[in-house]
Design a protein that fits this description.
- There is one protein chain.
- By secondary structure, the chain is of the alpha/beta class.
- The protein has three domains: about 5-150 and about 270-335, FAD/NAD(P)-binding domain, CATH 3.50.50; about 160-270, FAD/NAD(P)-binding domain; about 355-460, Enolase-like, domain 1, CATH 3.30.390.30.
- It has helices spanning about 15-25, 40-45, 45-60, 65-70, 80-105, 185-195, 215-225, 320-335, 360-365, 385-390, 415-430, 435-440, 450-460, 465, and strands at about 1-10, 30-35, 110, 115-120, 120-125, 130-140, 145-150, 160, 175-180, 200-205, 230-235, 240-245, 250-255, 260, 265, 270, 305-310, 345-350, 355-360, 370-380, 395-400, 405-410.
- Strands 1, 2, 3, 4, 5, 6 and 17 form a seven-stranded mixed sheet that branches.
- Strand 9 (about 175-180), helix 6 and strand 10 (about 200-205) form a beta-alpha-beta unit.
- Helix 1 (about 15-25) runs parallel beside helix 8 (about 320-335).
- The longest helix has 25 residues, at about 80-105.
- Bound molecules: flavin-adenine dinucleotide (FAD) and nicotinamide-adenine-dinucleotide.
- Nicotinamide-adenine-dinucleotide binds near residues 181, 182, 185, 318 and 349.
- It is an enzyme of class 1 (oxidoreductase).
- Belongs to the class-I pyridine nucleotide-disulfide oxidoreductase family.
- It is found in: Cytoplasm.
- One of its GO terms (cellular component) is cytosol.
């Protein structure tokens, strides 16, 4: 039997960070991955493919230049599914190569196969050819991630009714598309396809969307989507989804309306990939969505030497936070000191346009009874915005009136997912509105919006020096 200090199941962001962290501290580490190549959902079907697809769509459609040249401007007139896939394969190959090299130079072993528990320190690994091996780990880190939620009532066929994994293999770009689920995945893909001129309708049983984002930002975002003719049918349920002889799909909604479309993307959440792990063998149980419960500081499950990190432990289910969780879990597992992650992490939604946020929303400020002031800047007020032809884009800062500290940064528009880190740094370093007022920003940049929003709030908050 193979013997290791740490055995990691899954090679996504949580697994790979955990494995490399333990190896850096001189431990013998094995990663077991059932997929053909290492990288997890993040590299093969989630983060990287969707963001590559977005970038390709924006480049080929000339989206970023339309502010100058009009809505009919295109870099490539006929964009095919093959155009989108070509760039995807190149990016994924690079990602996998980098990861394999990281494993090799850090002496992390990796084995291809499906892992399941024999007991709390022993895993059985079934390889593709059916061969079964057993491996032993003093500690085990479960970083198995999630898979798309695929209810029986949805007639998936991988061509016209698909989940977000299957969307990456489509042969033709649809002219019309219905997206079921206005969560992050649904909204990202809906807006990417809309940028490619697919007529998109989004439906969701909830009457609101992206509830964890500041309401003013969601309102601005929603206005932009409707302005380009996307249909948002919120508070609406698809009661029946059926394939028609014509090759199209018909949806019957709960209000009696029918929609006929070329393609349906079902993006209504994901399930923890725990079903194959034989958890009963170690007395562990997953919840109804396949997720595992852990101590949020140590990522330890109720079995002391078994840890879980990443999407399998639930919110926030991001590649970025999964990496941190994996690193912390591995440190605890091998007895190294581990600090809790920073309280405020950024959330980036790579829709078209991007949304990014860090800290408290205005709604949360009200709920907590914190007296506050907001500062707003629109990208069209910045010189960089003029140069880029932007007529949309909004940055909102929220400050405590008592401490003058920045407590929330919320952005919708070009570059939001990069820009947010300035606000995140100020927030986590406990900076105040004076940071934005007193510091000089590069000019012309979109980051100048921080200065404008800071001054906007400061003008209403009064000068601290005169109050002292
Ligand atoms: C469409 C989409 C877009 C996304 N976009 C973003 C984004 O822009 N930014 C962001 O931060 N996050 C994004 N995410 C979320 C991000 O992909 C996840 O948070 C991240 O992949 C979770 O990492 P993980 O380590 O938990 O596991 P995963 O990346 O889910 O990997 C788990 C791995 O474990 C393997 N595995 C499972 N069971 C076994 C077993 N029994 N034996 C062996 N191997 C096993 C699986 O094959 C898989 O490779 C997106 C997700 C999706 C689906
Ligand atoms: N940019 C990013 O960081 C990013 C991108 C994509 C995904 N992710 C992560 O992936 C996870 C999964 O995303 P998601 O969008 O699939 O899930 P989600 O849970 O965020 O959203 C699911 C949506 O589907 C709706 N829904 C639920 N059940 C339904 C049903 N039976 N029929 C119709 N609609 C239904 C819900 O009302 C909700 O709006 C998220 O937690 C997210 O953190 C992150």
């Amino acid at each position: 039997m193979f013997q290791y200090d740490l055995v990691v199941v899954g090679s996504g962001p949580a697994g790979r960070r955990g494995a490399i962290q333990a190896a850096k501290l001189g431990k013998k580490v094995l990663v077991i991955e059932q997929g053909k190549r290492v990288g997890g959902v993040s590299v093969h079907t989630g983060t990287i493919p969707s963001k590559t697809l977005r970038e390709t769509a924006l480049n080929l459609s000339g989206w970023r230049e339309r502010g100058f040249y009009g809505r009919s401007y295109r870099v490539k007139q006929e964009i095919s599914a093959e155009d989108l896939r070509r760039r995807l394969l190149i990016t994924l190959n690079h990602e996998v190569e980098v990861l394999e090299h990281q494993f090799a130079r850090n002496r992390v072993h990796h084995m291809r196969g499906k892992a399941s528990f024999v007991d709390s320190t022993t895993l059985q690994v079934i390889k593709d050819d059916g061969e079964a091996l057993t491996v032993n780990g003093a500690s085990i880190l479960l970083a198995v991630g999630t898979k798309p939620f695929r209810p029986d009532y949805m007639p998936f066929d991988g061509k016209t009714v698909l989940d977000s994994d299957e969307l990456l293999d489509i042969e033709e770009l649809p002219r019309t598309m219905v997206v079921i689920g206005a969560g992050v995945i649904g909204i990202e893909y809906a807006t990417i396809f809309s940028a490619l001129d697919t007529a998109v309708t989004v439906i969701d049983p909830k009457s609101t969307m992206l509830d964890f984002i500041d309401k003013e930002i969601v309102e601005d975002f929603t206005y932009q989507l409707r302005d380009r003719n996307m249909k948002l049918l919120l508070g609406t349920k698809a009661e029946k989804v059926e394939r028609l002889d014509s090759g199209k799909v018909q949806l019957t909604l709960d209000n009696g309306r029918h929609l006929v479309t070329d393609m349906v993307l079902f993006a209504a959440g994901r399930m923890g990939a725990t079903d194959a792990l034989n958890l009963p063998a170690i007395g562990l149980e997953a919840d109804s969505r396949g997720r595992l419960k852990v101590n949020p500081e140590t990522f330890q499950t109720s079995v002391p030497n078994v840890y879980a990190a990443g999407d399998v432990v639930g919110f926030p289910s991001l590649a970025s936070t999964s990496m941190e969780q994996g690193r912390i879990a591995a440190r605890v597992a091998i007895g190294a000191v581990a600090k809790e992650p920073q309280k405020y992490f950024p959330y980036g939604i790579y829709a078209v346009p991007e949304i990014s946020t860090c800290g408290l929303t205005e709604e949360e400020m009200k709920e907590r009874g914190i007296a506050y002031e907001c500062g707003i800047a629109r990208f069209r007020e910045t010189s960089r915005g003029h140069i880029m032809g932007l007529d949309t884009g909004l940055l909102k800062l929220i400050f405590s009136l008592k401490t003058r500290r920045l407590l929330g940064v919320h952005i919708v528009g070009e570059g939001a997912t990069e820009l947010v880190h300035i606000g995140q740094a100020v927030l986590n370093l406990k900076g105040t509105v004076e940071y934005f007022v007193e510091n000089t920003f590069n000019y012309p940049t979109l980051a100048e919006a921080y200065k404008i929003a800071g001054l906007d709030a400061w003008n209403r908050m009064g000068d601290i020096k005169s109050e002292l």
